[in-house]
Amino acid sequence: MKIRSYAGITKPSFLLVHPELPALTSRNPQFTSIFTLRIPCNREKLIGMITRSQYSVADRRSATRYGASVSNKNTNRLGRRQGDSSSLYSRPSLLDMKNDRMENRARVYEFLRGIGIVPDELDGLELPVTVEVMRERVDFLHKLGLTIEDLNNYPLVLGCSVKKKLIPVLDYLGKLGVRKSTFTEFLRRYPQVLHASVVIDLSPVVKYLQGMDIKPDDIPRVLERYPEVLGFKLEGTMSTSVAYLVGIGVARREIGGVLTRYPEILGMRVGRVIKPFVEYLEDLGIPRLGVARLIEKRPHILGFGLEERVKPNVQSLLEFCVRKESLASVVAQYPEIIGIDLKPKLLSQQSSLKSVIDLSPEEFGRVVEKMPQVVSLSDRPMMKHVDFLKNCGFSLEQVRKMVAGCPQLLALNLDIMKLSFEFFQTEMQRPLDDLVDFPAFFTYGLESTIKPRHKMVSKKGLKCSLGWLLNCSDEKFAQRMDYDTIEMEEMELLPSFDMNTLTEPKNDDSGSDYDDSDDDYV
Hints:
- This protein has 522 residues and is mainly alpha-helical.
- It contains 23 helices and three strands.
- A three-stranded antiparallel sheet has the order 2-1-3, covered by helices on one side.
- A hairpin with a 4-residue loop joins strand 1 and strand 2.
- The termini are far apart.
- Keywords: Chloroplast, Plastid, Transcription, Transcription regulation, Transcription termination, Transit peptide.
């Protein structure tokens, strides 16, 4: 029996044929077209096999169609989600990534608002993508002593990574010697340091400070006092301010000490701050070299606001009867007088001395000229000195004259004054009027000056005033001992401030130039 022109599907071990079986289509099937095949003669058995095969193929076709339908649905969903992408390995689109970042930032902002931080200034700043990381950052800053108020004052610090920025910077400062107890105030004054690179930003500034002869042990104190210096450019304000100071006469060897005591100079602009200040003092009558010496000794005077403080204080001195020609001497003796809140002090001291010894306004002006520190003396010590003089037997008029002639009497050590007065009475046996004429007697050392000179004059049998005896150098006094008579032109009555002493170079050397306090006259 032969069958021709039937369609069939080849299998590894058998062939199924049926006159009604439709041709199956697939991507890689192998079809036979016209062929000849012998089959068994048992018809019933053959029909059963064909029927079972037909049902099996139908099931497979149905399953294939269902799977394709589900696959198409999933593909359509993925395509809609990813912008109709046909890629087998799809990734989030730029829009999806942007939306995710916005959602993460919104959660971080919500966290910050919940703890009291206003995140308005953080737009555009790279922040942690999770609330947990931001919480860790905030907790670290809290441990440094920074409060929510501090973070609101400079919220950009929240953009600093703990491991990449905060810890390296703080470790570097600690190695320099900056005390951990000062970190809180340090960061409040200059939180921008947390953005800095140790190698690129901080280390070059420290090396520059060392090159300015600031001792290594003083570097941390300088940074604690003026942390803003870490943000300056080496070729900018720092170098020009130092160059100007050297140019006006500040000794190069003194620069290290000047910057150690007042590092704020490194942030001052020459044209706006330093030069106008120097020129104003020159206009008052202080020579430029004298100004340089004042800066060497008291560099913080450069921080006195010229328009806000210095000029108004000079005007107040003139109002309180200080003569214009004496202004230079007043400032040279006590530079702080142009930087303090002066007018209330002048009013207070003038009122006190008027009530106690009836000092006139003109006499008060002379007192300020001779001892400008009087404006910073407290009332109680002054009153004790006045009472001491009264107890010595001086009248109120004599006390007034003595104070006007030598206001230092209001500030000397009372115990030393008592010893000097006792020697004056018992050994020198001079009248009280001699002290009224030369009250500066109390300002000389009893053992170093008064006793030895009195002994030499007594031995020679000379009769002299206290001014002739004391108001001269040891060399000059030795020359006077060769005189047979005392010439009137050499009888100097009272010592006075010599501006030339201001221009003499500083000679003292110290192990460290750093001083925690510049308020010696308070």
